[in-house]
Amino acid sequence: MIWQIDTAMLLLVVVVALASLQVKDLLGAGILFGAYSFMMCVLWTVMGAVDVAFTEATVGAGVSTVLFIAAVFRTSRRTKD
Amino acid sequence: MKKLAFVTILLLGIVLMAITADFPRWGDPLSPASTYLSPHFIEKTMEETSVPNIVTAVLGDYRGYDTMFETTVVFCAGAACFFILGSFGREEDDKIRYFRHRDTGVVLKVQPHGTRPSSRADFERIDPTWTPYDFIISRVAGLMIPFIQLFGLYVVAHGHHSPGGGFQGGVILAASFLLLALSHNMRTLSARISNKVLGLMSASGVLIYAGWGALALAFGGNFLDYSVLGVLLGLDPIAARSMGIMIVEIGVALTVMSTMIIIYNNVASLGAYDEGL
């Protein structure tokens, strides 16, 4: 494991997580959450937990993003706060 | 209120970070899990269950109870979504509906309680929040869906030898159906696979898992002890454990796939299953 790539990945996870909380556009927040899941998936792979990474990629980055999109479609795209 | 929430989250985060320092280091050979449990799995899995992927063997056989109740939790999530959001077949007639003539493309707007076109062959219903039919998106998605489903089946069937298994394969299969719903509309999905079928599949997955475990009781073994079922399959006890994992993974995949689609259908159509993304 190369520590530079590892640190960059961890930093990116934190940045994307904070960005998905901060962004006002809920559709964008859903997409950013998918990106966060994908980064976590890469981290699991680096740590050798390939099965967990697979689950994270399918459930976190795949289906839950679709569910967020469906929820945004039925509610509103902008936050009140 | 927001400040209070922020302070609470901050305090919880600090507590979590302080606790993390007490965890055994990553890959520590002296940590409690690595002293006797992990060596047993690493050394004995192949000769006890003939499954090369240790994670699948632990998930499906050694810790079969956990996986069975995880499957039940997924099923309960789908049922809860259905009971909270579902409209139980009450068709609300107070909405404006749109119908498109298939041949000419003329769109009819039917007022609430108005007469609807009687012929289903000539008219198709379209959503009020109608988005233009995009040829490229629907065609590319249509080309990709069979391959995604094939990959999902491969992941379910090949979970013994490579990463994957029932949960991942089920979610991939569900994703292919959700792609159909996203690229066309929800009615296209419901025409392929109805909500009744989905509910039945969701329940039968749990039934397959628990039933296969309970069948072992009838053959004189413990609950979820697949080795005694070799008599039924014509296999020796070790190969029967491998095959038993396969069968319960199919059950898990069925439940996970249909539950994901049920949740999507309920969220996207507000429980009415008539129109949505």
Q: Strand order, biggest sheet of chain B?
A: 2-1-3
Specify which chain pair forms the largest interface.
Answer: A-B, 18 and 25 residues
Radius of gyration of chain B: 25 Å
Q: What's the total number of strands of chain A?
A: 0
Query: Based on the structure, what is the oligomeric state of the protein chains?
Result: heterodimer
What is the N-to-C order of secondary-structure elements of chain B (H for helix, E for strand)? Answer: HHHHHEEEHHHHHH
Report, as a whole number of angstroms, the end-to-end distance of chain B.
Answer: 35 Å
Per DSSP, what share of the residues of chain A sits in E-state strands of 2 or more residues? under 5%
Q: Output the structural class of chain B.
A: mainly alpha
Outline the low-pLDDT stretches of chain B. Answer: none
Number of helices of chain A: 3
Q: Indicate the mean pLDDT of chain B.
A: 85
Q: pLDDT under 50 segments of chain A (min length 5)?
A: none
Structural class of chain A: mainly alpha
Descriptive account of the structure:
The complex is a heterodimer of chains A (81) and B (277). With 81 residues, chain A is mainly α. Chain A has one domain (3-74). Chain A is 81% helix and 0% strand. Chain A has 3 helices and no strands. The radius of gyration of chain A is 14 Å and the shape is flat. The mean pLDDT of chain A is 88. With 277 residues, chain B is mostly helical. Chain B has a domain at 60-89 and 132-269. In chain B, 64% of the residues lie in helices and 5% in strands. Chain B has helices spanning 2-20, 32-35, 37-49, 54-62, 64-85, 135-157, 166-183, 186-192, 195-218, 230-233, 237-269, and strands spanning 97-101, 107-110, 123-126. A 3-stranded antiparallel β-sheet of chain B has the order 2-1-3, with no helix packed on it. In chain B, helix 5 (64-85) packs antiparallel against helix 9 (195-218) and helix 9 packs antiparallel against helix 11. The model of chain B has no long low-confidence stretch (mean pLDDT 85). The interface between A and B is medium-sized, with 18 and 25 residues.
